[in-house]
Design brief:
The complex is a heterodimer.
Chain A: H1 3-12, H2 14-36, H3 39-101, H4 106-140, H5 143-172, H6 177-191, H7 216-225
Helix pairs in contact in A: 1-2, 3-4, 3-5, 5-6
Chain B: E1 7-10, H1 14-26, E2 32-35, H2 38-47, E3 52-55, H3 64-73, E4 82-86, H4 91-100, E5 104-107, H5 112-126
Helix pairs in contact in B: 2-3
The chains are: A mainly alpha, B alpha/beta.
Chain lengths: 228, 128
């Protein structure tokens, strides 16, 4: 109780004490009736969903960050290769142009021929390395599928929390327009089907569980153990 | 292995279908079609001459495991090789897929090298 409230309570004497007792009774009644209606369980369930939702959001945040890093790193590796292909070709082309405009000694031409052959031999490797980086950029996009699955699960959780909270509200709102509107909202939320847990869990947001494999090697050795 | 063989890629996420298709192309397989869930896949498999299936597990309508079971139960399709590529990473998932007759199991996220290795292994076993 704040100092001011205490003062008021003191001033009002017995009447203030009555008020405190009355509030206490009301609180107890509210808690009891929530328990009787099973609503405390609903609120508990809603609250339990929150840490899981937080873990899932963390997973989404880190997967998207990783994907962006992977793509940007690949671009950083590919760009110098492209620049080299471009500048060396331009330089050779310029030298050939000069030579054709003013054909000079054979020695100079021989050097140019050698440089050109060296360049031609180097281009396929640089092009292959660039392709490798393009593939890496493509593979980095696999986060969309993984985070998409997690987000879909999150939406189901949010729907569930909404439902449970609405249920609690519904019980505490008197009959009338507001209650009818809430009921309609709950019905529409409830009609969305929820996926059964079991074999369909989506990506493991925490790969440290006991019955969870965290990489392809573990999958392979499990299948080997089973004789597949 | 015949690089012209027709392959069906089944996944409900378009991005993943695109990635798998591009990887297959990179490996030389260009005859690739797509389906977005098990139900659509079964329809395509019954109507077409597919020789290989790469499938996700968690999909709406009909999931990958159920689709696999139906393929194995169908006389016309039961020998069709099926490679699961999925984010489902529980031991019971892998066991269930193997028992249902999956020819391979790749867990997402995966690499191009893993896909190539599993494809080779499957065709080696099948003697193609």
């Amino acid at each position: 109780m704040s100092g001011e409230a205490r003062q008021v309570a003191a001033h009002e004497g017995a009447h203030g004490d009555d008020l405190v007792v009355r509030i206490g009774q009301l609180t107890r009644m509210l808690r009891d009736s929530m328990r009787e209606l099973g609503l405390d369980k609903e609120v508990e369930k809603a609250a339990e969903a929150i840490p899981d939702a937080r873990a899932r959001l963390n997973y989404v945040a880190s997967m998207t960050e990783q994907a962006a890093d992977r793509a940007l790193n690949a671009v950083d590796r590919a760009q110098p290769l492209q620049t080299e292909i471009e500048t060396r070709a331009e330089s050779l082309d310029k030298q050939w142009q000069t030579w054709f405009e003013n054909p000079m000694e054979l020695d100079q031409a021989r050097q140019l021929v050698n440089d050109t052959r060296g360049y031609l031999a180097a281009v396929p490797e640089m092009a292959r390395d660039t392709s490798k980086e393009l593939l890496e950029i493509m593979m980095a996009q696999d986060f969309q599928d993984l985070t998409g699955q997690v987000i879909k699960k999150m939406m189901a959780v949010i729907l569930e929390v909404e439902n449970q909270l609405l249920q609690v509200l519904l019980e505490s709102v008197p009959d009338g327009e507001e209650r009818d509107a809430m009921k309609r909202r709950m019905e529409s939320a409830g009609s969305a089907t929820r996926q059964e847990a079991g074999l369909v869990n989506g990506p493991q947001i925490n790969a440290e569980g006991e019955d969870i494999v965290s990489n392809q090697d573990q999958v392979d050795s499990l299948l080997d153990e089973l004789g597949f | 292995m015949d690089k012209g063989m027709s392959i069906l890629v089944v996944d409900d996420f378009p991005t993943m279908r695109r990635i798998v298709r591009s990887l297959l192309k990179e490996l030389g397989f260009t005859n690739v079609e797509e389906a977005e869930d098990g139900q659509e896949a079964l329809g395509k498999l019954k109507g077409g001459d597919f020789e290989f299936v790469v499938s996700d597990w968690n999909m709406p309508n009909l999931d990958g495991l159920e689709m696999l079971k139906q393929i194995r139960a169908d006389d016309a399709m039961k020998a069709l090789p099926v490679l699961m590529v999925t984010a489902e990473a529980k031991k019971e998932n892998i066991v269930a897929a193997a028992q249902a007759g999956a020819n391979g199991y790749i867990v997402k996220p995966f690499t191009a090298a893993t896909l190539e290795e599993k494809l080779n292994k499957i065709f080696e076993k099948l003697g193609k």
